[in-house]
């Protein structure tokens, strides 16, 4: 029987480039170390998980604003009147196709090689992503094209994680039973809960050990 690993895309395969965010902050007069910002962003994902658990879309402007606010807060940047215009600008840009292209562009070295190894050892690979209709193009641009049997983009299929249907769509295409599939993603209430709802095993990407209290297998990156 076939077995599969299904991946989230954003902050699982293609990561937010903290250096580009830090450059924008410095241009606006708010200096921040890139490593500190990267840690703050990773911590903000748990806040986003709770926010989305209330029924909000991960692709909405309100979530992008909340995400950036929490990332800067966890990075130690005071959230006061001076930062509000910067936050608004970042969130608005992150809600555009061009902004996502610009900021979500970092691939951890060795990612393609690891995916090839999985595929070569018999795993079927797929992607399920809450996105804007452009995630397959971004995977290609990041050097990860041609590795996945299917790439399911919420904007194209009309349903978002954690709705179980989006996971089922991918499983039906690749012909793998849920019990034979593992899902890997970075937001607990979107990725883990959604995958488990259809009977998949789930692994949470947790680069800063922010979810050690949760009952889920975790990996650093």
Features:
single chain; 221 residues; alpha/beta; Rossmann fold; DNA polymerase, domain 1; 2 domains; 6-stranded parallel β-sheet; globular
Provide an overview of this structure.
This protein is an alpha/beta fold. The protein has 2 domains: 3-13 and 106-219, HAD superfamily/HAD-like (Rossmann fold, 3-Layer(aba) Sandwich), CATH 3.40.50; 17-104, DNA polymerase, domain 1. It has helices at residues 18-27, 34-53, 61-74, 84-94, 97-103, 111-120, 135-141, 154-157, 164-174, 188-197; strands spanning 3-7, 15-16, 104-106, 123-129, 150-153, 181-185, 201-205, 217-219. It has a 6-stranded parallel beta sheet, with helices on both faces. The chain has a two-stranded antiparallel ribbon with strand order 2-3. It is globular and about 55 Å long. It starts with a strand and ends with a strand. The mean pLDDT is 94.
- Named at the architecture level, the CATH assignment of the largest domain is 3-Layer(aba) Sandwich
What is the CATH topology classification name of the largest domain?
Answer: Rossmann fold
- Helix and strand content put the structural class at alpha/beta
Amount of beta strand: 15-25%
Q: Which class of the largest domain in CATH terms?
A: Alpha Beta
Corresponding CATH superfamily of the largest domain: HAD superfamily/HAD-like
Proportion of residues in helical segments: 40-55%
| Secondary-structure element pattern, one letter each | EEHHHHHEHEHEHHEHEE
DSSP helical segment count: 10
Q: In total, how many domains does the architecture comprise? A: 2
Label the overall shape. globular
Q: Low-confidence stretches at least 5 residues in length (pLDDT < 50)?
A: none
> What is the β-strand count?
8
Main sheet properties? 6 strands, parallel
Give the radius of gyration.
Answer: 17 Å
Mean pLDDT: 94
Distance between the termini: 28 Å
Spatial ordering of strands, largest sheet: 5-4-1-6-7-8
């Amino acid at each position: 029987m076939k077995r599969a690993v299904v991946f989230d895309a954003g902050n699982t395969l293609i990561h937010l480039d903290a250096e580009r965010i830090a450059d924008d902050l410095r241009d606006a007069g708010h200096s921040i170390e890139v490593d500190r910002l990267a840690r703050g962003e990773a911590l903000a994902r748990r806040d986003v998980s709770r926010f989305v658990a209330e029924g909000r879309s991960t692709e909405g402007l309100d979530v992008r604003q909340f995400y950036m606010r929490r990332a800067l807060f966890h990075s130690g940047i005071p959230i006061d009147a001076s930062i509000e215009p910067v936050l608004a600008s970042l969130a608005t840009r992150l809600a555009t196709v061009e902004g996502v292209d610009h900021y979500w562009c970092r691939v951890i070295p060795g990612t393609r090689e690891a995916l090839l190894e999985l595929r070569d050892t018999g795993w079927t690979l797929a992607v399920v992503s809450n996105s804007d209709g452009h995630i397959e193009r971004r995977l290609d641009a990041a050097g990860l094209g041609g590795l996945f049997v299917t790439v399911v983009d919420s904007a194209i299929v009309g349903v978002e994680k954690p709705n179980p249907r989006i996971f089922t769509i991918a499983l039906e295409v690749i012909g793998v039973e849920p019990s034979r599939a593992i899902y890997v993603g970075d937001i607990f209430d979107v990725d883990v809960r959604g995958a488990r709802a259809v009977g998949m095993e789930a692994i949470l990407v947790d680069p800063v050990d922010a979810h050690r209290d949760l009952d889920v297998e975790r990996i650093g990156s």
